[in-house]
Amino acid sequence: MSNQLPREPSALSLDLKTSKKIEINHRRNKEKDHTELLDECAKTFNYEECKEQYWNPEQYSMLFGTPLWNEASESQRVLLNQLYWVAYYSQIISAEIATIFYNQTSAAGLYGLNDFRGVCDMLDLESAQERAHINAFFTISEQVEEALFGQRMFSFNMRNAYAQTMIYPDTNLLKDQWRALQLRSFALLSSGSAFIASQYFTVRGIRTLNGKMVQQRLSQYYQKHPDQESCSVPSKVSYYHYMDESFHFNSSCIIGHDVVRSLPNPTAYERLVGNLSIAGCQRDHSNFSTVVNGLFWYEPALFEPVYKILRSSHFGMDDKEAMDMMKRCFCEENQAVHDSFGTMTTAIESYKKFLDPLDYVNGPNKNLSIMRRMNVEKYLLNNRKAMSKFKAPAGYTPS
Ligand SMILES: [Fe+2]
Ligand SMILES: [Fe+2]
Q1: Domain edges within the chain
Q2: How far apart are the C-alpha atoms of 204 and 99, rounded to whole Å?
Q3: Which single residue of 78, 188, 197, 215 could bond 109 by disulfide (Cβ 3.0 to 4.6 Å)?
Q4: Which of 143-172 are b and which e, b meaning 16 or more Cβ less than 10 Å from the residue's Cβ?
Q5: What is the pLDDT of residue 296?
Q6: Which ligand has the shortest distance to the CA of 29?
Q7: From the CA of 264, how far away is ligand 2's center (Å)?
Q8: Model confidence over 5-48: pLDDT tens digits?
Q9: Under a CB-based contact definition with an 8 Å cutoff, are residues 331 and 383 in contact?
């Protein structure tokens, strides 16, 4: 690097189109910021006031399209609709805890180059917004689960960014520890390399694409509601959240696709790390779930909460009835299995499009070959194997 002044203009400052995009995205997000509205929702939420209502479009209900859904009463269907919200946004809390952390480590990596203040300021705003998002999801989920079950089902105590991002993954203690080590290494590497930092936004972009598929539909429930005033607070939260997230998706695209062109060419090692993190993201998204269509959870990890819900007073099943119902939902082909697999297929195609223009991405990642290994037969086989070993949680007494 030359010591001469004035210094050479940076590649980013010369890329006027990208600089403008960053400035506009940050300014508009600041102007429209939904933090206050979301904080208000968290403060005013009262489950009693909206416990009779649907919070999402009907097909965004827990176990929609399974025998359980088909045979559920109207009030049980309302409950499954609300539980979808709780479970879905509990996963989003986990993803956003990670986002806050990696926004910061990646901003540190990018700030090591001249003229990156605008990018970093944009990320600071997004991190602050994520904290408001998490607070709204957290407050509502805890209140709902307390009222319905007197215990947690999908929500969890706050935790740090090194936990598995998927809250119901296919895992064991060793895999958890390996993942924590990978996440720690990535944090260190991204804070010291502008390229690795920028490619974090490729992974974030993929994850947001996945979120967008569902959250756009959830947000429309409020947006298109004929009487918005009477809509539940959780429906409003879905809408306000999606409004903020649309700016976050833009910034992932700008940094992952445009800013990356202004960075020094990646070394072979940086390319390797970039591809490893995309492969990690593929692995996270390599299962599908009928409990929450749209999340790539490992279904056997959900047997326990589903069992507890079926045994609760809301469904009133005994042990045998609950087990039989779970076998019908998870071990036999039904509409929900095909719907959730369809969502996964749509996700694969949209990720492919997103990764296509990036030179450093290798063939298996561009083709999403890890995700493509999953299919309906494999899903049923995994569930049957796990179901044959599944027992009621020790010491469990129905609420
Ligand atoms: Fe968010
Ligand atoms: Fe976000």
Answers
A1: 20-389
A2: 8
A3: 197
A4: bbbeebbeeebbbeeeeebbbbbbbbbbee
A5: 95
A6: 2
A7: 27
A8: 999 889 999 999 999 999 999 999 999 999 999 999 999 999 99
A9: yes
Contact criterion met (CB below 8 Å) for 247 and 58: no
Ligand nearest the Cα of residue 92 is 1
Rounded distance from Cα 94 to ligand 1 centre (Å)? 10
* CA-wise closest residue to 276 among 284, 261, 207: 284
* Distance from Cα 123 to the centre of ligand 2, integer Å: 10
- pLDDT tens digits along 304-355: 999 999 999 999 999 999 999 999 999 999 999 999 999 999 999 999 999 9
Taking the centre of ligand 1 as the mean of its atom positions, its distance from the CA of residue 263, in whole angstroms, is: 27
Token representation of residue 353: 């499009």
CA of 116 to the centre of ligand 1 (A): 23
Distance from the Cα of residue 173 to its chain's centroid: 22
Residues comprising the chain, all counted: 399
- C-alpha R_g of the chain: 22
- Taken in order 245, 246, 251, 253, the sign of the CA dihedral is positive
**Sign of dihedral through CA atoms 239, 244, 248, 254?**
positive
Task: Kindly report the CATH class assigned to 20-389.
Answer: mainly alpha
Ligand 1 centroid to residue 133 C-alpha, Å: 5
Q: Which residues have CB less than 5 Å away from ligand 1 (the ion)? A: 96, 130, 133
* Confidence band for 392, pLDDT divided at 50, 70 and 90: confident
- Ligand 2: centre distance to CA 130 (Å): 6
Overall pTM surpassing 0.90 (yes/no): yes
| Residue 310: partners with Cβ closer than 8 Å, 6 or more residues away | 68, 317, 321, 322, 325, 326
pLDDT, tens only, 132-187: 999 999 999 999 999 999 999 999 999 999 998 999 999 999 999 998 999 999 99
Q: Determine the residue type at 218.
A: L
> d(Cα 251, Cα 139) in Å, to the nearest integer?
27
Report the C-alpha gap between 43 and 40 in whole angstroms. 5
Which residues 6+ apart lie within 8 Å of 215 measured at CB?
238, 241, 242, 245
Confidence of residue 3 (pLDDT cuts 50, 70, 90): confident
